[in-house]
Amino acid sequence: MSELHPYLKGMDAAERVAFALAYPFAPPSASWALVDGKARPFDAAAARAAAEPARTAVIAYGSNASPQHIARKYGGRPGIVPTVRGRLEGFAIVHSAKFTAYGAMPATLTRAEGAWADIFVNFLDAEQLERMHATEALGVEYVFTPLPKVALTLEAGLRPESVHTYASLAGAFAPEGEPIALDAVPQSGPFAATRHAEAQEQARTRLGVEATLPAFIDENIREPAVRARRIAALKAWARPVEV
Questions:
Q1: Hey, is 235 helix, strand or coil?
Q2: What's the pLDDT tens digit per position in 131-171?
Q3: What is the model's pTM?
Q4: How many domains does the chain have?
Q5: Is residue 1 part of a domain?
Q6: Domain range spanning residue 152?
């Protein structure tokens, strides 16, 4: 077995699978901030930090909306990561046609006429943005891109001059020709939504893997070469994302 992703250290197989299927790790229903490594309610100090001109506003539509996951990414680093809830129009949040090293089938966003999604925005300083790029495998798994003329309404009256996002290079998982929306994200649009476990099950079925779903997920975690082959094969049911 190859070395496990750091998030999974000390976990047994059942715990690893449960962790993978917990994606996107329960994003909250209100704005929040990571302060010196701990999640806190969004307050005046967080609002001031979010309004700093040097910060980059980054759409967080999957696990980056989750306090527990952002805490994992930034550890005990000092500083504040304001994370503001809002509504993004004209986009859907869908499953990506890939598997992460910790076993999840992650999200991506894609344009969808008439759609809206309740998302978050991470307001990152230069050091935080560099760290986020590293965790997103920039240029390998995701591309970082601006969203010009985007219809975005944020809590706390914040109006960033520009916003960016990460978009999956693997594309959207579209086993029946259309992407599958994440049911964990409040949204409305043209794509049917499903649970993360169901999206994984559809991937397992399309790939012709006879193992149970937990065994399929744990093999993706434990065996990077197997995971890479499956991601390559999943391209047959991938649809390029539009941003």
A1: helix
A2: 999 999 888 889 999 998 899 999 988 999 899 999 999 99
A3: 0.96
A4: 1
A5: no
A6: 6-239
